[in-house]
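> tool_call: predict_assembly(chains=two)
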Amino acid sequence: MKTINEIMAIAGGAWQLLRMRVVYVLILCVLVLIGSAYRYDVLSLGQHKALMVDVSLMLNTLAAILVAISVTFEISRELREGVASTLLSKPLGRTHYLIGKLVGISIAGIVITGLITIGFCVIFSSAFDDAGIGQTMLLGHLLIMASVIPMSALAVMFSVLVPESISAIVTVIVIWFAHSTPAIDKIKVLYGGILPDLNLFNLKAEAAYNIAGSISWTYLILALLWGIIYSVFATSLASLVFGYRDLK
Amino acid sequence: MKKSLVTHITVMIIAVALGSFLASYLIAQQKEISVNHDKLSQAPLGGFNKFASDVQWMLFINYAGGLDCVEKAEAQEIYKRLNDILANDPDLEIAYNIGGMMISNSDPVKSAEIFMRGANNPNLKNSWQIPFAAGFVLDRYVTDQDDPLRLKKAEEMFRLAASRAGDNAPYITSALLKTRAKRIAQKGKWSNIPVVNDEHALLCTLFDEWRKGGSPEDGNPQASDSLNILDIKARLLKAAQDAKASDPTNKSILDTIAKVMKVVSEDQHLCGNCLTPYAAGDKFCSQCGTVVVVYSVCPKCAAVMKGKFCASCGNTDKTK
């Protein structure tokens, strides 16, 4: 119980993100962009319905990536300013610190992507009276919400493994390529184990066309489970390296 | 520290093993969900293939809107753009329909290829328009020099369209029958009878289709392949009339008509000249005026027999 309290105390720091007004302004901008897809009916020759779903999925993914990389700045800043060493001078393990950051940013990411998903559902339902929110459409968004966990784990790992100046860039590049698995699927070494496969969370085309019965709840749960397992690996590796690091 | 190192490494090994196992299972599941997964572009687009395709599609519409006509050069550009769009989103049905049709005149081979790709996409299995367009382009625009198997492919495409459209599109059935007739005409032979012309070939095709009629329960194994043409008998008669009119003295045509009518119109009385059905008691064909064999008349008073006995004189015999 004490350990959980310690982790949640660290996680609380990461939730600062949710107290920033700019985040909600950005969510509003995202929703405006999603809604604007409705006006693309002529330019897309009637494909605006699928376009709106796809734009929402794309913006939701970008929001998830941005939230995840925000933790790289936060950990780096805390290490640079000595906040981390102050925290760690208390009876708090380095692993707890990293897990706390991961849990915090994951929850913040899930809340933000969840708000975008809810906003999308409202906009889509009001824009298209004849079409309800399909299960596949919803599961597509839930998969993106679930992808926040491994993305955050990657961000936490790189904020410890690589220098501060490049940790965010490295995180973005890795997340980008982890989503582009067809391009690197020749690398078979422990794929999904050591190398992250974020493409498992990418069924955007199926969600955009709302292909009935294509994505199941079981798939979502298993993908979420994979995300958690991968996060355990990434955090363990980060913790191992972090354990040997000299702090200010 | 040593204990911590062992714990970390153990946790990592277990996580990697579990993660790899679960990922391989999920990848297999994903390939089942996303049937076109392997056909997607290999470009590192960060998982935004669908969005890239949306943008390319709108740029394509913009480009197409600026064209006055589609010549060979424009067709090449359209084909290239379509390939890019479909590599990122193989399920964009409208791209097959509009793009394929745009280049059907100037580059029918590529147009047919685009349509066939769409027709064979499992996610577009409810669309009959794409296979119909594929069959249409192969039948009308592609030449035998371009593709010697074009008619076979066109027939397959029309059949696919017919199976998807159900009973709602009789013109698909007509197109399919005409393509089959062209194939028979191309072969030049049907049931050891030389095929003389298109009308003759259509008659052969319809007779083949008639033989497939019924249901598998009736003992006809070909029935499942049947197009279930409701007015097939009337069509056969019309085809026989057209075939005879095209070359009235040709032995092959006459042999085919005899073969067809023997089975199909066994219970009907047809004019020997124009194959028009005639009624009991008629002495001449109402269509061509040819003398016909009178049937069902009383040999005693020449009245038409409506039943077992003559209604005029009570005689029981009648002409056959």
